[in-house]
Amino acid sequence: MVRVVVKCPICSEEVVVEAEVRRDFEEFCVVHNEHVFKLYLDREGFPRRVSPVAAARVVGEVEELAVFIGGGKAVVISRGEVVIFDAEEIGVAIEMAEKLTNKNKYIKSQ
Predict the structure, then answer these.
(1) Label partner for 2 (CA 20 to 30 A): which of 21, 33, 45, 106?
(2) How many Å apart are CA 108 and CA 110, to the nearest integer?
(3) Which of 34, 30, 26, 35 has its CA nearest to residue 5?
(4) Cβ contacts of residue 63 below 8 Å, gap of 6+?
């Protein structure tokens, strides 16, 4: 688990991100305030790139679970945590979201 401080590309605030890096290069989606940005980390936890996700924004607090799908990927938001995994259909994504454990990429921003 690495802890990095990055500048949000949307609002310019500093954001503390804790993430588990398992490969040489990892891509994460970070929910910050009412917007979302992508963070790319190398194996040592060094931020390589931070970019806004223009098509995504938070429209309210997520009580239990929110699932978004597109481009063969599913994004699950649950109580401030974000998980990304491969999925082609919303039904499969919801089923997998309900079974999720700590095996996937959990992101917490402060």
Answers:
(1) 33
(2) 7
(3) 30
(4) none
Count of beta carbons in the 10 Å neighbourhood of residue 35: 17
* pLDDT tens, position by position, 15-59: 999 888 888 988 888 888 878 888 999 999 999 999 988 766 665
Quote the distance between the C-alpha of residue 57 and its chain's center. 12
Return the DSSP state at 91.
H
pTM (2 d.p.): 0.56
- Reduced 3-state DSSP string for 50-82: EEEEEEEECCCCCCCCEEEEECCEEEEEECCEE
Token output for 79: 């109580």
In tens, the pLDDT along 67-80 reads 777 777 878 777 66
What Å distances lie between residue 66 and 22, 60, 61, 92, CA to CA? 25, 11, 10, 14
Pair 74, 68: CB distance under 8 Å: yes
